[in-house]
Amino acid sequence: MRRVFSMVLVGMGFLTLAASSGAESPAPGDSERRFVIAIHGGGGVRPRDEMTPELEASYRAALRRSLEAGYEVLAGGGDSIDAVEAAIRVMEDSPFFNAGKGSSFNREGIVQMDASIMDGRTLDAGAVGVVQRVRNPITLARRIMDSSPHVMMADQGALEFAKAQGLTIEAPHYFYTERKWESLQRRLRQGTEYGKRPSKTARITPDSHAFGTVGAVALDARGNLAAGTSTGGREGKLHGRIGDSPIIGAGTYANNATLAVSSTGLGEHVIRVVATKTMSDLMQYEGMSVDEATRAVIGQVAEMGGSISVVAVDQDGSVTMPYSGDGMYRGFVREDGVYEVRIYEE
Amino acid sequence: MRRVFSMVLVGMGFLTLAASSGAESPAPGDSERRFVIAIHGGGGVRPRDEMTPELEASYRAALRRSLEAGYEVLAGGGDSIDAVEAAIRVMEDSPFFNAGKGSSFNREGIVQMDASIMDGRTLDAGAVGVVQRVRNPITLARRIMDSSPHVMMADQGALEFAKAQGLTIEAPHYFYTERKWESLQRRLRQGTEYGKRPSKTARITPDSHAFGTVGAVALDARGNLAAGTSTGGREGKLHGRIGDSPIIGAGTYANNATLAVSSTGLGEHVIRVVATKTMSDLMQYEGMSVDEATRAVIGQVAEMGGSISVVAVDQDGSVTMPYSGDGMYRGFVREDGVYEVRIYEE
C-alpha cells in the first residue's frame, strides 16, 4: 500500500510530517508487521544559496543510504535498536554530516565525538563523550550498553574500552575534511567561540557550520522503540566539552510507553531543559501526543534562547520531525518501502 | 524559634524528615527570611558493627562543618548556589566521604571524579565528568557554568580548563586514603567489578565501599533553589566511566518551580530513569509534593533493581531525605541555626 503523507506547517516555523492514512490507528491485524525508521542529519542546514544541485543530490543520497540500512534490519524482522545503530553508522561514515568522519573540530583542531543509544523496551542505554579516533561512536555507545557494567564513558577510558572491544580505530587525519577545517579557521579568526556563553535572552540561530548532529529513531515489528544520536559537537568547542547528544534524557531518549526521540541543536540549552525526557513525561503525565510533546519542549528551549530540532516516533508509528530554522536533513521509511527524504520545507 | 522536627517512617524503609511547624505554609511576613540547607554524604553507610563511637563522632563533625559552611553563606544573605558549593567543598576536603580527597579508586587505581551544580532560578548548570587531580570538582563545575560557554566537560579538557581557571590542582597521592585503597584491593581479589552489568532483575544493595556521593540542596532567603553533587564514583569502575552525578536531570536538578535535589546510589540506574528531572516533572505535571515525587522515583529505580537515596527541598522549605538501605550520612539546618545530623534511622 502506497501511503499518502500530508505535511502540516504549524506555528513557529516547525514542519510536521504525519502519515495521514491511519498512523495513529493502524488497521487490526496489520499491527505486528508495521515498522518505521526516521533519521536526521542535523538541524543546521546549508543556506539555499550555498546548496548546489550536485551537493543536494549527495545529501539526499546519503540520507537514503542511511534509511536503507535501517530498513533492511527492520524488514528482516530485526530489532529497532539494531536499525538505529545501522542507520547512524552510515551517516557517521559520510563526510557530509557532523558525526564520525565529517565531525566538526574543537578549538584545538581535534575531533572529539559524543554519542548515545537507548532501548525503549528495557530502558537500557549506552553513551560516550568526547571520544577520539573511534570510527563509529554509535557502535561504541552500543558496546558500552551491552558489554560494560556502565552506561556512560568518556575520553581516554572510552578509547581504551573501544580498543579492547576490537572496534575500528582511525588515525586522526581520517576525520579531516577541508570544509570543516576551513570553517574552524574562519571561526577562530572571528573569535566567535571565545566569549562567555550567550546570555539567557540572546537568540541562537542554527548555523550550518557550528551545529549538526545525526540521529535515528525506530519502531520495529514487535512494537519496540529505540533511539540514537551521534555528533562531533559544536564547532570550536573547548577541548573536553560534552554536549547533549550523549546525555540520556537530553539528546536521546526511548521508552516503549511513550516515544523514541533524538534531538539536534544547541546542546547547552538541551541539557538544562533535559529535553527528551521532558517530552516523554509530557506524554506520560499530561497525555500529550508525540507531536504536541516535542513541540512543547522545543518551545521551552526557545524561551531560553536556544533552538532544537528533533525526530521522534511513538508506539503507534506516528513520526514527527519538527525543526527550527531553515530546514533539517531528514527522512523516514515505513514497512511499505516508500522513502521520504527532505532538507528544506517542502 | 526552636523548631520541632517529626520523623515519619514510611514504607520501604525510607525515612522522611519534615518540619512539623509550618514548613509547608510559612507565616506571612516571615517568608523572606526563611532559608535551609540540607546535605548528604552518601547512602552507603558503614555497617553499625564497623562504626566505633570515635568514627561516628568524626562523621558527625564533618557533616556539621559542611552544614556550617552553607549556613554561613545563607545567614549572610548569600545565594543558595554559593551555599551548596561551600557545603560540598567541606565534604570534598574530608577523607570520610567518596568525593574529592576521599574518593574511591577506579580499577586502574586512579581517582576520576564527577560533579555538577545547578541554579534553580536560571536553570543554569555546570558539570564535570572523570576529572583527575582537581581538589574541588564542585568548584570546577561552578566555573564551567559561570566562565565557559558550556555546561559539561570531561577528563583532560576539564583538567586543562581547571588549570586555566587557577583552581587548586593536587598531585595524585593527595587522593590516597588507606581505607579506599584496601577496599579496592579486596574488590579486585574478589573480582566483583569485572562481570557484566547486573541483570535488570538483580537487586543491588548499597555498599559502604562501592558507592557514596556527597550532595547539597538549599533554599535561600530570596526563595531561590540550588543543588549540587560530587563523587569519586563507583569503586572499581572502568577508567573513563561517568556516573549519574554529573548528569543534569539524573544526579542533580534544581528548578525554582519545583525542587532542588541531589541523589546518591547506583548511577547506572539513575541515568536510565533520568531520576531527578522525573521528580521535578511529577511535581510540575502531577501535582505531587516533594516527598511524594522523590519517593515515587526511588520506587521506579527500585523496580529496575537499583537503589538511590536523595536529599531534596522545595520552595516552601520542605526538606525530604528518603533513603534505601541502612542509613544515609545527612543533615540540615534552617534559619534558626538548629543543626540536625543523622546517620542511621534515628
Description:
The structure is a homodimer of 346-residue chains. Chain A is globular and about 50 Å long. Helix content of chain A is 30%, strand content 23%. Chain A has a domain at 53-246. Chain A has 346 residues and is of the alpha+beta class. An eight-stranded mixed sheet of chain A has the order 6-5-4-8-7-3-14-15. The first copy, chain A, has eight helices and 15 strands. Chains A and B meet through strand 5, strand 6, helix 4, strand 9 and helix 6 of A and strand 5, strand 6, helix 4, strand 9 and helix 6 of B.
Please sum up the structure shown.
2 copies of one chain form a homodimer. By secondary structure, chain A is an alpha+beta fold. The first copy, chain A, is 30% helix and 23% strand.
Uncertain runs of chain A with pLDDT below 50, 5 residues or more? Answer: 1-29, 194-206
Which radius of gyration of chain A do the C-alpha atoms yield? 18 Å
Largest interface: A-B, 55 and 55 residues
Oligomer: homodimer
Q: Total strand count of chain A, please?
A: 15
What is the helix content of chain A?
25-40%
Going by helix content, strand content and strand pairing, the class of chain A is alpha+beta
Looking across the biggest beta sheet of chain A, what order are the strands in?
A: 6-5-4-8-7-3-14-15
- Give a short account of the largest sheet of chain A: 8 strands, mixed
> How many helices of chain A?
8
Q: How large is the share of residues in beta strands of chain A? A: 15-25%
End-to-end distance of chain A: 23 Å
Shape of chain A: globular
User: Taking all residues together, what is the mean pLDDT of chain A?
Assistant: 87
> Could you give the order of the helices and strands of chain A?
EEEHHEEHEHHEEEEEHHHEEEE
